[in-house]
TrEMBL record:
Molecular function in Gene Ontology: ATP binding; phosphoribosylaminoimidazolesuccinocarboxamide synthase activity
Pathway named in the protein's UniProt entry: Purine metabolism; IMP biosynthesis via de novo pathway; 5-amino-1-(5-phospho-D-ribosyl)imidazole-4-carboxamide from 5-amino-1-(5-phospho-D-ribosyl)imidazole-4-carboxylate: step 1/2
Protein name: Phosphoribosylaminoimidazole-succinocarboxamide synthase
Pfam families with a match to the protein in the record: SAICAR_synt
One GO term (biological process): 'de novo' IMP biosynthetic process
UniProt-listed Enzyme Commission number(s): 6.3.2.6
Length: 291
């Protein structure tokens, strides 16, 4: 008889299963925008996100260890060897996750651009005068946040505040852990952004999450450099001084803004365009087909 597993945690688009000494993380085909889960699914989205994270985890394991064990369902309990989970599941080490979201910005956009226009800073970091929207920054900046519960908003914190937060949880180790995750975040971004540029994709910003393994080693967890956790822009047509098109939920957000009375159902054209954008990002970055 096949053991049936229930998710211990269900986010907007992902499910986490505890299988004893490890976890199975499933990226579904659901999509959320403006904090709402929409009623459509985006074909292949879960598989694209899983394959993309695997690609980056493999590429960066020399910089920092990560939690990925396998994406082959043959390595997982029999329950996961069905079409529902095939290609969308990642078998992972269990970690004690650190309560800091590690955000790195290489270009000025979004909330960072709004802040810069007001006072010349992003998350308290003063930047050179005269920057335009979407400009590349002289050096990537690290702007951590707290990790809020579902429905709440993350709050920006300084590096010193991240030290204090971690020190309360891990006395005597807060500063070391804060410095390790900051340095790993910047190193990962620099390596991957340079690689992406060679494939005609700009990684404007992204976030990483880290945890500790049973030995207290800092390990990269969660997902990595997907269109759901990053801003990807096409290099072709990149023009500072304006917003940029992106490889993510742009079609969805645009349609929702134009149709405020929507009931959470997207037109088929928007679904197809969004699915195509996710596939295009993966294929450009990896040089491999999604299928």
């Amino acid at each position: 008889m096949i053991t049936e597993w229930k998710p211990i945690k269900e986010g907007k688009v992902r499910q986490v299963y505890d299988i004893g000494d490890s976890l199975i993380i499933v990226a579904t085909d659901r999509i959320s925008a403006f904090d709402n889960i929409l009623k459509n699914i985006i074909p292949d989205k879960g598989a694209v996100l899983t394959k993309m994270s695997k690609f980056w985890f493999d590429e960066t394991s020399s910089i920092v260890p990560n939690h990925m064990l396998s994406t082959d369902t043959a390595d997982m309990p029999e329950f996961f060897r069905t079409g529902q989970f095939e290609g969308k599941s990642m078998w992972c080490k269990k970690l004690t996750m650190l309560p800091v979201e590690c955000i790195v910005r290489g270009y000025i956009t979004g909330s960072g651009w709004e802040s810069y226009q007001k006072n010349g800073t992003v998350c308290g970091i003063r930047l050179p005068e005269g920057l335009q929207e979407s400009d590349r920054l002289p050096e990537p900046i690290y702007t951590p946040t707290t990790k809020a519960d579902l429905g709440d908003h993350d709050e920006h914190i300084t590096f010193e505040e991240s030290v204090n937060l971690l020190e309360k949880l891990f006395p005597g180790k807060g500063e070391a852990y804060a410095a390790q995750i900051r340095d790993a975040t910047l190193a990962l971004y620099k390596k991957c952004a340079e690689y992406a540029l060679s494939k005609n994709i700009i990684i404007a910003d992204t976030k990483f999450e880290f945890g500790l393994d049973e030995n207290g080693t800092v390990v990269l967890g969660d997902e990595m450099l997907t269109p759901d956790s990053s801003r990807f822009w096409p290099l072709d047509g990149y023009r500072p001084g304006q917003g940029q098109p992106s490889f993510d939920k742009q079609f969805v957000r645009d349609w929702l803004r134009q149709n405020p009375d929507h009931d959470g159902v997207l037109p088929e054209e928007v679904v197809e365009k969004t699915a195509a954008k996710y596939r295009e990002a993966y294929e450009l970055l990896t040089g491999k087909s999604c299928y």
